[in-house]
Structure formats: structure tokens, C-alpha cells
Specification:
Largest interface: A-C, 48 and 51 residues
Number of helices of chain B: 8
Largest sheet of chain C: none
Shape of chain C: globular
Structural class of chain B: alpha/beta
Helix content of chain B: 25-40%
Strand content of chain C: under 5%
Largest sheet of chain B: 6 strands, mixed
Order of helices and strands of chain C: HHHHHHHHHH
Strand content of chain B: 25-35%
Number of domains of chain C: 1
Oligomer: heterotrimer
Distance between the termini of chain C: 29 Å
Number of strands of chain C: 0
Order of helices and strands of chain B: EEEHEEHHHEHEHEEHH
Distance between the termini of chain B: 42 Å
Strand order of the largest sheet of chain B: 5-6-7-3-8-9
Shape of chain B: globular
Radius of gyration of chain B: 19 Å
């Protein structure tokens, strides 16, 4: 092959790229929002920058979610007249508390990966039902809905928060039933559903939800609690069977 | 075809770019030479005379700035022309984690031949490496690598052997063996084109010696010329260089 | 006959090169580090409790990509330049080996190396997931294939840059910048809206010139299918890099 033919051959090989480069530049739509919409949390800028640069938003969102769970799972310490409370204090309530960073962390996590469904459900359920901050839960869900407007789980969660405010536990229990059908339903929601069904007297349903948690969850707190609840509910189940 | 290799007024200028300056070095100037089939031609010159440049141009590793080269009528710019050449560079280097037979089979494939373990063993025996065939190349001494270099130049039975400093760094016994090997290959009708700093080696094996200085041929000496000169090729070489220096000054 | 001879030469160089890449100590160290990191992600996975599967999958895929990228860029940057410096290349081109045949074999060996690394790392990762009792969705394997596509593009680009420079550092740094820039192509679009004048021009140019690695970032968006032109986009990049490399390599002297 002489040089002229070779040059022509090389030019021909470059032609497909000359077509695909502008096509990709003009037509590609990222599913993630722009980086300016990332809501930083404390000194997370360098990590956020790395996440965007390496195309690892999902991974960093996972790590932030683990941090959120670790943060929420770590008991708070309060000072009352010089006495420092800790986890050994019997009147300490696990699950409730101030956890002032919970909402900012959730918003930051959501801005990293707005499609992290389980994180949205976990955070909104924790805010609404454990931390008693339903307005923050609603705000979080609204942010999630801007990216996934047709997500029925978010809409259902909004409805559940509404029913919780209007003190209608039966309707709340019914809403959570739809969540339970999903294979990747967060354990916290299962836990809530079981609690609600027990509260309204649906012992059978509550028992089977706790049984599911016992068999599938890897969280030893949930498993321990589920076992305890199943033991409490067993007499009711046997009574129902006899009837 | 009597002339197996022909250089037609070949010049080579190296361009060295350094930041904002450019330097040109004329390594070869108007080099013309013909190699006949079956002869052994040597290149002799000081460091920087252009010996390696000539060999690399012949192998297609460098491109001439002007002029032409032909190997059996074909330019070495095209791969086909190199089917009949076997090249031994000055310091041959091989992939370290394989054995000599694997190395030679690899180069056989690159030369367009089929894997031939019998041929490989025959060549290894010829160069004195048969007993080391199971060792990896990384375990070879310098002399053994030089022998392997010669083996890879011979493995595909080329018509022309281009040897750049074939006895460089070898002990006297190895030099003797390599010399005899080159002569035996020549007896099979192969053309050999070699360069060396060792005047005595060139005297012993070459039919013709081309003396180079600063990229130019200053003299071409036939074998009978140095055989008839009582002080041999060395004297002729030194006088040729002195005459050249006087011409310049 | 000529085509068969060409193929034999390409296959010979390809297998030799791949063997060399896989027999380096650095390769073994890389696989060990990747396996270590994948199993280290177990700790993070355990902390994630009921979300362990997602975390293990995401971190595993991320580590596989990063470690593969590191080794592949190093090999692509040094593959040909090492052969030139050690003069092994003399013994190749003093034979009837066309420069394009050699180049093609080198390109193919890098893609094969990427496949080997992704495969081995993927096997260890799948083993870990299996030990933890998780099954992988089909998207996982597609994500692995997309990682291979990204690595193939970046190794082709690195190999091209390595032909323009004598030092391996230049192509490595260039590839790192292109890797990061390629993942930011959607973000560049937003930056263009904010920028003015020369910076807007540069950003616009980079948007068109940089490879869009987000097309292959399925591990970041596991539910989404690949774009319909992803494969053609990858092939077009590889062909263009091959063509540019061929143009440069043809005139290279040793």
C-alpha cells in the first residue's frame, strides 16, 4: 500500500467517529441532574467532585447511605445538668431523637443519586414515623418525585404520612401492604407495617410480617425484635386457629 | 540477480528537536554500494561513522532522507522485501520469560514460516545453545544472548545476513566459533553484510571492506589489497582516515 | 494466501504480547489487590446490613473498573515504547511484518487484556456475592461488558498517545484527564450554559472531542439498558485511534 492509499484508508477509518461524536454530544441526556444541584454536606465537596469525575455517583451514594444508617444507628448523647446519658441509660429511646444531620445527609445522598429508591423510603419513613418530622419527610419525597414523578412508592409514602397525621392507622397499614409485595422492600417499612397491623389488631398479618423479617433481614436488631414479637403474637395466632 | 542489495546515493539526516531549537545531523551522505550474491562485505569506521544507520536503513528501521535502497529489486519500506534478510542488532534483546525454542518459533511465525521444532533445534545446535534450550532467556549470559541473536537471524533461512557487531562482548572462544559459523553460512551461498570495530575479525572473514568516515565512503578495499599489505587492513584503515582528515583541513 | 500470512503474524504478535502482559508480576499484584478490595467491600456491605447486595455489587464493579483502568493504562502507555527502548522491535520490523499488522495485534492484545482482567475480577466478585447468598441480575453482566467497552476505548487512546511521546508519563496523564473528562461530558453541557467567551468555546470543543464514557457507565445506572449506538460508538473510537496510530507509526523510525 503506498502512502497516498494509506492516508485515504486512515481517513476512511476516522469517518464513523466524525458522525458519532456530534451525535453523542448533542443527543446524550444524562439521567443524573447537573452537579450544581448536588447539595453538599459539611466537607463533602472533594468526595462529590471525585464521584462526578469518576462516574461513581451511585457508589458514593451507597457509601453515604451506609454513613446515614451508621449515624442513625449510633445512639445520641445528651447532657442534663452535668449528667451524660448514654446507651446504658434505661429511659433512652432507640429510633427517636434529634439527629440533626439526618435530613441534610438524606438530601445530600439524594442529590448524589436521585434514583436510590430504598434510601428515599428509608429516610422518609425514619423522618416521618421515628423522628416525628413529617414535614421533612414530605420535603424529601418531593425532591425524589421531581426525578421520578411516577414512582408509586413515593406517592404511597406521602399518602401514608398524610394518614399518620390524621391518625388513621388502619389506612396506613393498608398502604404499607403494597410495599410489602416488593421483594426489595426496606426492612424498616416492614417493621412499621408489622407494628401498625399489630396496633390495629391484625395479629395474623403482623405475625407473618415479623416472620418475613426474621427470615430475611441481616440486621440483628430487627431479627431480635421480630423474634420477640412473634413469641408475643403466637398465642393470638393459635387462638385464631382454634376459632 | 548478481547484485542482491543496492544502495543508490542514500543520505540520512537526523533532525533533533529540543524546545525551540532544531539541530540537523548528517549521518550518511551520498552512500552508494552494491552487494553481490555470496560475498561477505564488512563496514569499518569509527564511532558515529554511520555503520548502524546503513544497516537500519537496509532493514527498514530507518528511512533514507534521499536516495533508494533495494533488496533483490524491492524497497525495504515494504514488508515483502524483508523476507530474505536476517538481522542481528548490536545488543539483541529478547522477551525474558520464554525459552530459546519459543523465541525462535515466534520469529519463525513473524517471518511467515510455520513452527518447526526440528529446524529450531538444528539452529540451536549450530549456535551452541542446544543444551540450554529449556532455560528462560532471562537466565542467559551476554554471550548466549548474542548466539540466540544469531539464531533468530538464521532461523528462517534468509539469503542475506545483516550483522551489526556480531562478536561484540564475546570471549575469544565464542568469537572463534561465531567466525566459523559465519564462514560456513557463507559457504551455503548466503550474502553477509557486517559491521565491526574489530579489524582483525573483518580481515579474517570479509571479501571486501568499506571504510566509512562521518557518513561517507572514503575507501573500498578488496581482500587481496590487505593480504598483500604487510601491515594489513589496520594500516590501510589508518592511512585512509589520515588522508580524509588532510583533505578536510 | 497473503491474508492468511497476515493473520498468522497478527496472531503471533497478539499471543506473545498478551502472554507478556499477563506474566508480569504487576499483573498478579493487580489481581490480588482487586480481590482484596472486593473482599474488603464486605466490611462496608456488612455495615449496609439489608442493603448489602447493592453495596457489594456497586463497590465490586467500581473496584474492578478502577484497578483494570490503572493496569491497562500503564500497559498501553508502555507496551510499544518499551519494545522500542529495549530494541526488541528491531527483530520484529527487520522481518516481513507490516507496521499496521503489528499495530493491530497490539490493539487486539490490549482489548484481550482488558477482557482477561475484567473476567478474573468478575469471577472473584461473583464468588463473593455467591458466598453471601446473592444472585446477580442480568444487568450486572451487561455492566461488566460496558466496563470492558470503556477500557477498550481508553487503552486505544493511550496507545495512540504513547506513539507521540517517548516518556510513558505523558500518555498516562493524558489518559487520566480524558477518563475523568469523559465521565463529565453531561456535566460539561451545564457548565457551557454558565461559561462565556473562550472558556465556553473550550468547553464546547471538549464536549465534542472527549469520549462519552457515561454511555458505558451502566454500573452507575443499573436499571437502564445500554444506548442503541454504544457499540458503534466504541468501534468508531477504536477505528479512529487505530487510524491515527497507523498514520503516526508508519513514519516512526527506530
Amino acid at each position: 500500500m503506498n502512502f497516498k492509499t494509506a492516508n485515504l484508508f486512515f481517513l476512511l477509518l476516522c469517518l464513523p467517529l466524525l458522525y458519532f461524536l456530534p451525535r453523542s454530544a448533542l443527543s446524550y441526556q444524562s439521567r443524573f441532574p447537573s452537579p450544581e444541584q448536588i447539595v453538599p454536606f459539611k466537607s463533602s465537596f472533594s468526595q462529590d467532585f471525585l464521584a462526578v469525575n469518576l462516574g461513581m455517583r451511585r457508589i458514593f451514594a451507597d457509601i453515604w447511605f451506609v454513613r446515614l444508617m451508621q449515624y442513625y444507628g449510633t445512639p445520641e448523647e445528651e447532657e442534663e445538668e452535668g449528667h451524660v446519658h448514654g446507651p446504658h441509660c434505661h429511659h433512652f429511646n432507640y429510633g427517636s431523637g434529634r439527629y440533626p444531620d439526618f435530613y441534610p445527609m438524606s438530601v445530600h445522598l439524594l442529590s448524589m443519586d436521585p434514583y436510590f429508591e430504598n434510601a428515599v423510603l428509608y429516610a422518609s419513613a425514619s423522618l416521618a414515623f421515628n423522628l416525628e418530622r413529617p414535614e421533612k419527610a414530605v420535603a424529601l419525597l418531593k425532591i425524589a418525585l421531581t426525578h421520578s414523578p411516577k414512582k408509586w412508592k413515593y406517592l404511597s409514602m406521602l399518602a401514608a404520612i398524610g394518614y399518620s397525621k390524621s391518625r388513621q392507622p388502619e389506612k396506613l397499614a393498608d398502604i404499607f401492604l403494597d410495599f410489602l409485595k416488593e421483594p426489595d422492600c426496606p426492612t424498616m417499612i416492614k417493621q412499621l407495617a408489622a407494628f401498625l397491623n399489630k396496633k390495629v389488631g391484625n395479629y395474623g398479618r403482623a405475625y407473618f410480617i415479623y416472620k418475613d423479617i426474621f427470615e430475611t433481614s441481616r440486621n440483628k436488631y430487627y431479627v431480635k425484635n421480630a423474634k420477640k414479637q412473634m413469641t408475643k403474637l403466637l398465642p393470638f395466632i393459635e387462638k385464631m386457629r382454634k376459632q | 540477480m548478481k547484485n542482491i542489495v543496492e544502495f543508490f546515493s542514500v543520505s540520512k539526516t537526523y533532525v533533533l528537536n529540543h524546545w525551540f531549537s532544531m539541530r540537523k545531523i548528517a549521518a550518511l551522505k551520498d552512500f552508494s554500494l552494491k552487494l553481490e550474491k555470496g560475498e561477505i562485505v564488512g563496514l569499518l569506521g569509527l564511532n558515529g561513522a554511520g555503520k548502524t544507520t546503513i544497516m537500519k536503513i537496509l532493514c527498514g528501521l530507518l528511512f533514507p532522507s534521499s536516495g533508494n535502497v533495494e533488496i533483490m529489486g524491492k524497497s525495504p519500506l515494504f514488508a515483502e522485501a524483508k523476507r530474505d534478510i536476517g538481522y542481528l542488532p548490536e545488543f539483541p534483546y529478547f522477551h525474558p520469560n520464554i525459552t530459546a525454542p519459543q523465541t525462535l518459533n515466534y520469529y519463525l511465525k513473524l517471518s511467515g514460516r510455520l513452527v518447526d521444532n526440528w529446524q529450531v533445534d538444528k539452529i540451536l545446535e549450530k549456535v551452541g545453545l542446544l543444551q540450554h534450550r529449556t532455560k528462560k532467556v532471562s537466565e542467559y549470559s551476554k554471550g548466549m544472548k548474542q548466539r540466540l541473536g544469531l539464531a533468530q537471524a538464521l532461523i528462517h533461512q534468509p539469503e542475506i545476513l545483516i550483522l551489526d557487531e556480531p562478536v561484540s562482548g564475546l570471549d575469544p572462544l565464542a568469537i572463534h566459533e561465531i567466525r566459523n559459523l559465519i564462514l560456513s553460512i557463507n559457504k551455503e551461498g548466503k550474502t553477509i553484510f557486517l559491521s565491526s570495530h574489530s579489524i582483525s575479525e573483518l580481515e579474517k572473514i570479509c571479501d571486501r571492506v568499506v571504510i566509512l568516515s562521518l557518513g561517507r565512503i572514503i575507501e573500498v578495499i578488496q581482500k587481496k589489497q590487505w593480504e598483500h599489505n604487510p601491515k594489513g587492513l589496520e594500516r590501510i584503515f589508518i592511512e585512509a582516515l589520515k588522508n580524509e582528515n588532510q583533505k578536510k583541513s | 494466501m497473503k491474508i492468511k500470512k497476515s493473520l498468522d503474524v497478527i496472531v503471533a504478535i497478539f499471543t506473545r504480547s498478551l502472554f507478556e502482559y499477563c506474566s508480569r508480576k504487576l499483573f498478579a499484584i493487580l489481581i490480588l489487590i482487586t480481590v482484596f478490595l472486593i473482599y474488603f467491600s464486605l466490611l462496608v456491605g456488612i455495615m449496609a446490613v439489608d442493603y448489602e447486595k447493592r453495596v457489594l455489587m456497586d463497590l465490586g464493579l467500581g473496584f474492578i473498573e478502577l484497578m483494570s483502568f490503572a493496569y491497562l493504562v500503564y500497559i498501553s502507555a508502555t507496551s510499544i515504547s518499551e519494545e522500542i527502548q529495549s530494541k526488541t522491535i528491531y527483530l520484529v520490523f527487520s522481518r516481513p511484518v507490516a507496521r499496521l499488522e503489528y499495530l493491530l495485534a497490539k490493539f487486539l492484545s490490549l482489548f484481550a487484556l482488558a477482557a482477561v482482567i475484567v473476567f478474573y475480577s468478575g469471577v472473584f466478585h461473583l464468588l463473593l456475592l455467591h458466598l453471601r447468598g446473592f444472585l446477580c441480575p442480568a444487568e450486572y453482566f451487561v455492566a461488566l461488558a460496558m466496563i470492558w467497552c470503556k477500557l477498550s476505548i481508553i487503552s486505544a487512546i493511550t496507545l495512540f498517545f504513547s506513539l507521540l511521546s517517548t516518556s510513558p508519563l505523558t500518555p498516562i496523564i493524558a489518559s487520566l484527564i480524558i477518563w475523568m473528562g469523559g465521565h463529565m461530558t453531561p456535566e460539561i453541557k451545564f457548565l457551557i450554559e454558565k461559561a462565556e467567551g473562550f472558556s465556553a468555546f473550550v468547553l464546547n470543543l471538549s464536549r465534542y472531542v472527549l469520549p462519552n464514557f457515561q454511555l458505558y457507565n451502566l454500573r452507575d445506572t443499573l436499571q437502564m439498558p445500554p444506548h442503541d449506538y454504544s457499540l458503534y460508538y466504541m468501534l468508531s473510537w477504536i477505528l479512529a485511534m487505530f487510524a491515527l496510530s497507523g498514520f503516526v507509526f508508519r513514519k516512526k523510525e527506530f
